[in-house]
Fold:
Amino acid sequence: MTETINRPDVAAPSGTSDPSGRAQRWFDQLNAALRARDAETAAGLFETRSFWRDLVSLTWNMATVENPDGVADMLRHAVSTTAPGGFRLAEPAEDDGDVVTAWFTFETAAGRGKGLARLRGQGDELRCWTMMTALQELRGHEEPRGTRRPKGAEHGINPDRQTWSERREQERRELGESQQPYVLVVGGGQGGIALGARLRQLGVPSLVVDKHARPGDQWRSRYKSLCLHDPVWYDHLPYLKFPDNWPVFAPKDKIADWLEAYTSIMEVPWWGGTEVRDAAFDEAEGRWTVQAVRDGRAVTLRPTQLVLATGMSGKPNVPEIPGMEVFAGEQQHSSEHPGPDAYAGKRVVVIGSNNSAFDICGALWETGADVTMVQRSSTHIVKSDSLMEIGLGDLYSERALAAGVTTEKADLIFASIPYRIMHEFQIPLYDRIREKDRDFYQRLEAAGFQLDFGEDGSGLFMKYLRRASGYYIDVGAAELVADGKVGLAHGEVSHLTEDSVVLADGTALPADLIVYATGYGSMNGWAADLISPEVADRVGKCWGLGSDTAKDPGPWEGEQRNMWKPTAQEALWFHGGNLHQSRHYSLYLALQLKARYEQIDTPVYGQAEVHHTG
Amino acid sequence: MTETINRPDVAAPSGTSDPSGRAQRWFDQLNAALRARDAETAAGLFETRSFWRDLVSLTWNMATVENPDGVADMLRHAVSTTAPGGFRLAEPAEDDGDVVTAWFTFETAAGRGKGLARLRGQGDELRCWTMMTALQELRGHEEPRGTRRPKGAEHGINPDRQTWSERREQERRELGESQQPYVLVVGGGQGGIALGARLRQLGVPSLVVDKHARPGDQWRSRYKSLCLHDPVWYDHLPYLKFPDNWPVFAPKDKIADWLEAYTSIMEVPWWGGTEVRDAAFDEAEGRWTVQAVRDGRAVTLRPTQLVLATGMSGKPNVPEIPGMEVFAGEQQHSSEHPGPDAYAGKRVVVIGSNNSAFDICGALWETGADVTMVQRSSTHIVKSDSLMEIGLGDLYSERALAAGVTTEKADLIFASIPYRIMHEFQIPLYDRIREKDRDFYQRLEAAGFQLDFGEDGSGLFMKYLRRASGYYIDVGAAELVADGKVGLAHGEVSHLTEDSVVLADGTALPADLIVYATGYGSMNGWAADLISPEVADRVGKCWGLGSDTAKDPGPWEGEQRNMWKPTAQEALWFHGGNLHQSRHYSLYLALQLKARYEQIDTPVYGQAEVHHTG
Structure:
């Protein structure tokens, strides 16, 4: 190509108004302090009120430290163990007049990371407000993707050639029998499958087991009207994105088929029809003995690492109610509800007023059942369209994609907001939503529905992160309550009679079917069942931030309890959450497992204390 | 964001050295002539020796016209029927000093297209050398993708709600029974599946049928060492790309699993276990009557359009050889060869010296068979690595992707080279390959192997496009021949004895197994079997360009005969080829079928004459 005109030089000027230059100079100072192993000087680059969130790069943990003191403490550990350095701007920084936002890369002794920093201050007097560092790959163990992808065909001549299908067949025969997996993932839903795909890519011998017959059966077995409540841009799995014809809110059976196809395509070793009965960690041997039954046959597995991916919502909560044994109709936990078809013309009482309760009430009403919802405490409701537009649109939408915010970038942006101040980012969004849907909320309240927006008005995501309950993403059923088409009652259930639900105030609700949409326990309930109550108590509850709001008691943790990070029980891990979390956090869990498999030193900084047992 | 420095203006200057401005001014002249319905003036914008290749946008055909006369003839048709216009640069044009390359968009009465033009000349005296126009979508029938994707969940309340799985189940019950498909695709390999996916997206009721039980079985049933000979970047299907961990050369069973997963994910209506016995077109009714047997049960299908996607290589060619009935060992066409396992220690004669012959010889030799290849005519061999690097690398590779050449862009670039001059682009590449692998070719020739590079030295792609035979992409087995490990004999087969293959020169090759790697007939052989010899003769042979080289007799056609475009038999179409063609050309075939389904007027320009019958 002949260029007859020299393009004007558009390189960054060196003046103080150039955000890229300013950001890189801040990183240079950080690099110099880290090279000098001077944690205090490095910490002096942070604002008095500041946050550094690390995802297994400096800490081999998920940990958020606060303020220069906290940063100094973490860096004292890091300079002598994980040796971070080489912080370098990855793309032009942006200055919104208040905050300089800088994407960067960095290295540690073990690997390479990416991060996002928010810097503030005049000229070159920048100080860091928020910093997020995330390990992306281990040096020498990079994933075989893109230019590193496998060749597939083995060219040349090899009399001992084994084909791909012969190798796969051999693995199927041997894995869990003569060959033990290094990692056993109990639970083969979206979380187990995403983690299994990452471990496969990383070459960690793993096995994912599930009691259902086929991948996706967890979704297939749910009530038939169920669709994802999160939109497609938020829901991709690792490596293989949904095609761009994928519906915004995928129906459950379509997601199920996707999970099944994905498991095949990503070659996730997945056993169906397998129930884990018992697991015990042998301290001396440093591995687990897991007793399972596969298609009716007893199997003993000996993994080194055990991951519980049994559903972040834990075990179904079914309340103990006097008279349950005398009630003559049907009783189901929402997780067992088959859908409305059998209940046309029946009287149904749904206990609870969150997502599942609304979905089930809506489908039952559509089918011609006589439905009453029992609200026991206030619920946060947000219309799906508003959530998409205002709550998620900047990060996960066609609009975000068009603006260059890929799924991967959106995940890191979301992860870069420290949990301690995330509500401050969320409250204004929900103020907008409250305003936008004012009429809707007024009609619901007029119908007697008790609404909330979280104790601090921070809305859906904070409720999800704090307690994973207490909300409904409205896809239409709220109108049935507002219109009185679905009946509404309030209060706790006092007892059941042969044919009715009696509330604390004496109200009797005649019923042929009672659906307990009463939520789930903590994931460590699974640990109590599978391992022991002692181990469950030792690791303590899962999920929650310690925000000291309803169902999320303090003290403050800074991260979600026990999720994707080392627990108080050696070699026991918890994985779960929505598709977004299954996608993003499976990376960090997989890297931690890979590092241990490769016997890379993984000194953990800031192991969380346990405050809340089973 | 506050910008304290104005960015220098980098907009295109208006001088003659700006390729974008020059290209747009050329398009402006074209637009003006088309608006004036002045085909002659428009044709005057073309060089004396020039080409316009149209993919169903102006012609409702695949047609290449040549020189101002040809352009004028096509445009006289187009201005009064398809009304092209609005040609507009889609991204900055590039000038390599000789040719200005310009991507553009345009519109027609029915839809929107993309194209690529190569312009030459000084200043604004540009004339067009090559032009390619390709329809991308029909106005009012845009695919539901991206911002148009379906919502999935049906929000709101609807007592007649049908879930996704209920709809799918109903379709499965009714399609081909109470509901007739508009399009029947016979053959459910990669071609049928890709077309089925596109028709599904476009909302054309379609059914893909195949005699195999499961999607991918066409690959599963082949010899076990088979891997794709084309690299991954060339092989994507529409809508859903292989993940970036996909091997460069996928093993056949992995591709098979992908096709099966893809069929499920894309919701392609696919019947396995279905053999089509007979098809007849009812002129009066304007639709086909197709007799099929599905899982042993007779089914009559009444599609309006019939697509044969039964493998572009057509029916296996098994030569008639005296003595075939007295030979006591096994005889197989290469398509029936199960792989080497049963033949360790056996004497095998493989008739043929192209891809399948080499693959089969290599695998047999590895397993310990005594193998002799019979070369009947010269073969073009190119090492896989050289083909990837020199033949494909600019369009289909990680390097191409990094340079912004997406699969979609590469497909259009490849399609923009007129077939008439494509060999001129190819010859220099194969000169480089010949030089690079000179030692390799010398060793093969020293071993007595007869090599060629095509009659004009244009190598692999031209052989593929002209005759789809006569080559081997070497993945190692050529060394066995060069080393004499696989025996080599020459000439036609004279006859078989009880235990040997006797060649024309009297050489007797003892054999326990004879593999006929003798290629395939033309696709219209399927039409003869399924429809009638008369219809097969009426449409004539498929494939080939009319290059007047071996196995591709003239006269010149300009496009591949009968592929993806209207044939001489109303409502009969042929679809096939490698994964690249299955992906790219399925778009144009699908748009033609969709237009007919929507009763959009589709006046065909330049219907090819038929010169070669069955």
Observations:
- DSSP finds 18 helices and 25 strands in chain A.
